[in-house]
Design goal:
The structure holds 2 protein chains of 2 kinds. By secondary structure, chain A is an all-alpha fold. Chain A is 64% helix and 0% strand. The chains are: A mainly alpha, B alpha/beta.
């Protein structure tokens, strides 16, 4: 998991990251992305054409990023590092949340290419092939 | 047993207009128990605007039919739009221009010198000088006595000979004519006598003699401007239509009932008012509900004892039919029609046309649209000929026909659909050539109120606005279409449109 967050090297000496931080961050990233892709491609994408557009695909990506950012921040801050308030948050947690968010977009795009085949109306978003 | 062919003789302007309405009915997917229809147009007025219009409509219909159904087994896709094959009309050209006048045609001036003095005398008895000198280039202008002589030449034409050569056992013949004019009133009895003439030397005489023959005779349903007749501008006098009809009916009763197997009569006491033209390119009368009923009689005729191959197989030698409506109202809509199946077909076809004219081009341009990609339509498919023909049929022929049926000139209008969607009605009125495209504007709300007196069902889910979503339905069904092997893209698109639109109509209307 450390390797996955290679951009985060300067925190490697922080043992708690190795134990829980990376894994939980990744779980947030994965589940949020899966959730939004399921909503976009399967729940909505098989039911109605209303949301089948590149604009809506992007909008769901933004929802996903917001969710990842907020959840990463909260889960890492309060659950992993057991901090009591936002004022206590380390600079590294904010940085990790931002990086996780960026990863979120990449994962959303990659998994879209897999999920789109399960859709009826959004089958050709974001790219046609 | 394969289905019989139907040889459809359309005589005069009314014949062509009925043929035009039949083309529209067949475009809706009305099932016709015929392998194909071979229209034979008989009109001495070769420049007649109605004939030209009919010719163009059938041509576009055929282009669409060919693109979709060429090579398809007969029983497949029955009931689909444009399913029945209509051959290009054969025109039994007996150009009145070539004959000049009746006097010139029979060489009247030399009859006496050739020893036909008695014939000349009889001729004088039957024809006034006005009849003799009437130019034949624009038909017989309400004079069937003139037509009965001239039309005899039809049987000498190469097209008629082709018809006799191609005629097979079990094929059927149907004749469309008006009873109150000139060409139709003269042509119908003449053709019947030729078909049943046991002494004639025509090809396949036995088959033709024994064929099941039907006819629709259109009783007076319009009148023309009498002032033009009074001032000598036109030779057509509509005040004589009823008298002529009575005389012709009496003649038919005495002489035709032994010859024809199924006779349909249609007419209307609420008459339309047309401009008085002596034929020619200017004669473009608007489509009329009566012509539509006459066209439906052709479908009825093919259903009439469908298992019978010859007249000997029929339960009774001759049967007469009339068409009636339940209520005598000035504006008819779908609710006044008898058959639910026909109502559904008209409804489906209207929605098909709405989709083609307003939504299909945008759909074909949308390269991310599911159905377009699932069917793997090539790029710029909207610019290809098939879509062009579909759009042409819809915008140039269908909407115009629909608009004409509801024209102010009719005392009984047929207004099945809301025509406020047409935005260039004034231009359509002025366009005599019939080349102008109808402009149609339909918004999402309008889609629910397209049918007169029959709004589409709406469903409300929370606060979401209900919409009729053609592309959504098409995209849902196209996956299952791919399981069927289609030999070309056009057939695939047609199957999708048929299935999808029928599904929408089933969901939205209680029929």
């Amino acid at each position: 998991m450390e390797d996955f967050y290679f951009l985060f090297e300067d925190l490697n000496n922080w043992s708690v990251w190795d134990d829980k931080g990376y894994t939980i961050g990744f779980m947030v990233l994965l589940f949020s992305t899966l959730l939004y892709l399921t909503i976009f491609y399967i729940l909505l994408g098989r039911k109605s054409m209303r949301f089948s557009s590149i604009g809506n695909w992007f909008l769901f990506a933004v929802y996903n990023l917001i969710t990842i950012f907020v959840f990463t921040l909260l889960v890492e801050g309060f659950q992993v590092f057991e901090l009591l308030s936002f004022g206590d948050f380390y600079y590294e947690i904010w940085l990790f949340a931002i990086i996780n968010t960026l990863y979120g977009f990449a994962l959303y795009f990659v998994l879209s290419l897999i999920f789109k085949r399960f859709s009826i109306f959004s089958k050709f978003y974001p790219v046609k092939f | 047993m394969s289905k019989p062919k139907l040889y459809l003789f359309a005589i005069g302007g009314t014949g062509s207009r009925v043929l035009n309405s039949l083309t529209m009915l067949l475009a809706t997917g009305m099932k016709m128990k015929a392998e194909k229809i071979i229209p034979m147009i008989i009109d001495t007025d070769i420049n007649n605007g109605d004939v030209e219009k009919c010719r163009n409509t059938i041509k576009t219909y055929n282009n669409i039919h060919r693109a979709i159904y060429q090579g398809m087994p007969e029983d497949e896709a029955q009931g689909h739009f444009f399913r029945t094959k209509i051959m290009a009309p054969k025109e039994l050209n007996i150009s009145g221009t070539d004959y000049g006048t009746l006097r010139e045609m029979v060489d009247y001036n030399v009859l006496g010198s050739k020893g036909f003095g008695k014939t000349k005398g009889l001729f004088d008895l039957l024809y006034s000088n006005k009849n003799k000198d009437m130019p034949l280039e624009k038909g017989f202008l309400g004079n069937p006595n003139v037509g009965s002589v001239v039309l005899k030449n039809v049987v000498e034409s190469s097209e008629f000979k082709e018809f006799t050569q191609d005629f097979k056992e079990d094929d059927r013949i149907f004749v469309i004519s008006s009873i109150f004019g000139g060409t139709g009133a003269a042509g119908f009895p003449l053709l019947m006598n030729v078909f049943r003439d046991e002494t004639s030397g025509m090809n396949n005489k036995t088959y033709i003699n024994n064929a099941i023959i039907g006819g629709v005779s259109v009783l007076p349903y319009f009148q023309v401007d009498v002032e033009k007749f009074n001032s000598g501008e036109s030779a057509i006098n509509s005040s004589t239509f009823i008298t002529k009809t009575k005389a012709a009916l009496s003649y038919y009763n005495r002489n035709l009932r032994q010859l024809v197997n199924a006779m349909f009569y249609v007419g209307d006491t609420r008459q339309s008012n047309y401009e008085n033209f002596d034929g020619g390119i200017e004669q473009k009368n608007p489509a009329n509900f009566i012509e539509l009923t006459a066209a439906s009689s052709i479908v009825e005729f093919m259903d009439y004892e469908a298992s019978s191959g010859t007249k000997e197989d029929l339960a009774q030698p001759c049967k007469f039919f009339e068409y009636g409506i339940n209520r005598d109202v000035g504006i008819l809509n779908l609710g006044h029609l008898k058959s639910d199946e026909n109502i559904k077909r008209l409804l489906c076809f209207h929605h098909y046309n709405i989709y083609v004219s307003n939504f299909m081009e945008a759909a074909l341009k949308n390269d991310k649209l599911a159905w377009r990609n699932e069917l793997k339509l090539p790029a710029a498919y909207e610019k290809q000929r098939f879509y062009g023909e579909m759009a042409s049929f819809t915008n140039r022929h269908y909407y115009r026909w629909l608009y004409e049926l509801s024209a102010d000139r009719h005392d009984r209008k047929f207004l099945p659909f809301d025509l406020s969607i047409l935005t260039n009605k004034t231009d359509l009125d002025k366009d005599l050539d019939g080349t102008l495209k109808a402009k149609v504007v339909v918004d999402e709300k309008k889609l629910f109120t397209l049918v007169t007196g029959m709004p589409a069902k709406k469903s409300k889910i929370l606060l979401l606005k209900d919409r009729i979503k053609y592309d959504e339905v098409f995209s849902k069904i196209c996956k299952s279409l791919l399981e069927t092997q289609f030999s070309n893209k056009e057939r695939m698109v047609s199957a999708m449109l048929n299935r999808g639109i029928h599904q929408i109509i089933d969901d939205r209307f209680d029929l």
